[in-house]
Specification:
binds glutamine, 3 domains, binds nicotinic acid adenine dinucleotide, Nitrilase/N-carbamoyl-D-aminoacid amidohydrolase, ligase, elongated, EC 6.3.5.1, 18 helices, six-stranded mixed sheet, NAD/GMP_synthase, C-N_Hydrolase, Rossmann-like_a/b/a_fold, alpha/beta, binds adenosine-5'-triphosphate
């Protein structure tokens, strides 16, 4: 017998129970004829509500939404599968992360997630108690369905959980596994999921449907990409990446879609730069929409970081909703203003001018009058960045624009940025891209648009903060290709110590290219010394597996 399964891949706002409910209702209407409609993990509240689950009215508010879904289930012949937090009546943490199956106004099955991720950006053990190791099974339209929640099926890849919920289902005997998920996106993640789940399906000889959510919640973006995996053919169908979608698949031992049997593996692949582009655009759109910002403001230096930030913001929010401000000083190159002007004209973004030379002069004079000596070169460098930061916040206050800060991952790693200066802002959309990736994405942006929207002069110019005469980033930092290689290895790969690096055989050639042990030691020192800046920096849209923010929790006052 064939079951029709609707996969509802939706964009939830955290704790917006009414809004989330409205989206789910619309999906139910769209999934006419389905026997089973599957939503994602914690769909009523969105993932991850963090300590909002501890608010006294959280469960009561969620219950209203659940009651509304139960009422909804009376008006459809479909069985609904949803994710919700439920109270733990036993010992341990106060809640479970649960999957509920609704039929005709009743909860006919309740299952609690067994494997709670507590690593990288996940902290589920903070709030949830794991459920018992039991098989949650229900027969719908003649198919015996077994249910799991996200991490429950991630047991196979180097994790050492003592239990395997998929094994429990397989041993009990099911026709199909239904997995509800909140699987955050980073570059390489869709491929990782495909490989992992193709392996799970093959190992247990069981097909599986995987329903993810989509959209941005603060730093985290969900890419969707829900899929069906067949034990012999691998992943045979995938919903779009970075979009809401509701699609119905038939299943009778094989998967069917639009009258076709799905027996060919599909690829999750999207080129890295395009993946970054889509993730950042969606992340900014959702951040702005969910908070209520329509417009953003960005300081435009004529450099690559602000150019890319402007370009991505123009695509995400529309050029009319983006304001650029150029703030030339005595050290600004002529290109700083003319390249900004060309960029903004290409993008259709408004460019305002606010020179800072007079303000800098005023501050210098007042500094001397108040404190005696003239301010040092570094003090004046930072002063310029702070004056610019103040002007941008002034604009934000007055016109209600969200200020986007423009630091990339390379400079944030080593603290090459001024606190309360160019770090000012509400959100950073390129802060998880290394400088070399910023260049690559800028080039991709132009290719994608079929035009040189980001002027080549900006892409070609040597990076400079232009805070003193002739200043170049390379005066203070190793060349970016070298720096980025060291950073990638240290922050998101194997933790390098200089001596280890020297002795690792594979790295001997690379070691020379990276400037030797002294350079590495210096970079590692800079990373450690600038933790205090990252702690105060605006949230960064995460695009890589290991991002700054709660995915990398480091102390400040430590002996590194
Ligand atoms: N552990 C700690 N905990 C708390 N606070 C700590 C601290 N260590 C220093 N501090 C404080 O931080 C201050 C130093 O930090 P900060 O004022 O930011 O300044 P700082 O890191 O000294 O200098 C900023 C550097 O970034 C460069 N820059 C600036 C702007 C843009 C760019 C670019 O290319 O994008 C580059 C600039 O040329 C300069 O070399 C100290 O005066 C001290 O008050
Ligand atoms: N002359 C300027 N006018 C407007 N904003 C500026 C100016 N100089 C710096 N900024 C702001 O401060 C940020 C840091 O700029 P800076 O030039 O110091 O470093 P950067 O990391 O090389 O950035 P970019 O590549 O955008 O120049 C810029 O991205 C921009 O938002
Ligand atoms: N919500 C979850 O359990 C997510 C964890 C899972 N390993 C993922 O990243 O997809």
């Amino acid at each position: 017998m064939r079951i029709q399964i609707a996969m509802a891949q939706l964009d939830y706002k955290l704790c917006d129970f009414d809004g989330n409910l409205a989206r789910m209702r619309a999906a139910i209407a769209q999934a006419q004829g389905a026997d089973l409609i599957v939503f994602s993990e914690l769909c009523l509240s969105g993932y991850y509500p963090q300590d909002m689950v501890e608010e006294p009215d959280f469960l009561a508010r969620q219950q209203q939404a659940l009651d509304a879904m139960l009422a909804e289930s009376r008006h459809t012949s479909a069985t609904l599968v949803i994710g919700a937090a439920t109270a733990n009546t036993g010992v341990g943490k106060p809640l479970h992360n649960s999957l509920l199956v609704l039929q005709q106004g009743q909860i006919v099955l309740q299952y609690h997630k067994q494997l709670l991720p507590t690593y990288n950006i996940f902290d589920e053990r903070r709030h949830f108690e794991p459920g018992p190791n039991r098989a949650a099974i229900l027969t719908v339209a003649g198919q015996r369905l077994g249910f799991v929640i996200c991490e429950d099926a991630w047991n196979q890849q180097g994790t050492d959980y003592a239990i395997d919920p998929v094994q429990t289902l397989a041993q009990t005997g099911v026709d199909l596994i239904v997995s509800i998920n909140a699987s955050p996106s980073n570059v390489g993640k869709p491929e990782q999921r495909h490989a992992l789940f193709a392996g799970v399906a093959q190992h247990w000889k069981l097909p599986l449907v995987y329903i993810n959510q989509v959209g941005g919640n603060d730093q985290i973006v969900f890419d969707g990409g829900s899929f069906a995996v067949h034990p012999r053919h691998g992943v045979v169908h995938q919903l779009p990446l970075f979009e809401e979608a509701v699609q119905t698949l038939g299943f009778d031992g094989d998967f069917h879609h639009d009258g076709r049997m799905l027996d060919q593996a599909v690829s999750a692949a999207m080129a890295d730069s395009e993946f970054y582009y889509r993730q950042i655009v969606l992340g900014l759109q959702d951040y702005a929409r969910k908070i209520g910002f329509k417009q953003v403001v960005i300081g435009s230096s004529g450099g690559i970081d602000s150019a890319l930030t402007l370009a991505l913001a123009a695509d995400a929010l529309g050029p009319d909703n983006v304001t650029a401000i150029t703030m030339p000083s005595q050290y600004s190159s002529s290109g700083s203003v003319s390249d900004s002007a060309q960029l903004c004209q290409n993008l259709g973004v408004k460019l305002l001018t606010h020179p800072i030379a007079e303000l800098v002069g005023g501050y210098r004079g007042q500094f001397e009058a108040a404190f005696g000596p003239a301010p040092s070169r570094l003090t004046v460098e930072n002063l310029q960045a702070r004056i610019r930061g103040t002007i941008l916040m002034e604009y934000s206050n007055h016109f209600g624009h969200l200020l986007l800060t423009t630091g990339n991952k390379s400079e944030i790693s080593v603290g090459y940025c001024t606190l309360y200066g160019d770090t000012n802002g509400g959100l950073n959309i390129i802060g998880d891209l290394y400088k070399t990736e910023v260049f690559a994405l800028a080039r991709h942006y132009n290719t994608r648009h079929g035009r040189e929207l980001i002027p080549q002069a900006i892409i070609d110019k040597e990076p400079s903060a232009e805070l003193s005469e002739g200043q170049k980033d390379s005066d203070s930092l190793p060349p970016y290709p070298v720096l980025d290689e060291i950073l990638k290895l240290h922050i998101e790969g194997h933790r390098l110590r200089p001596e280890e690096y020297t002795s690792a055989r594979n790295f001997v050639a690379g070691m020379q290219a990276l400037g030797g042990g002294d350079t590495i030691a210096r970079v590692l020192g800079l990373i450690a010394k600038s933790e205090f800046k990252r702690r105060q920096a605006p949230p960064i849209i995460r695009v890589r597996n290991r991002a700054f923010g709660n995915g990398r929790q480091m102390p400040i006052a430590a002996q590194y």
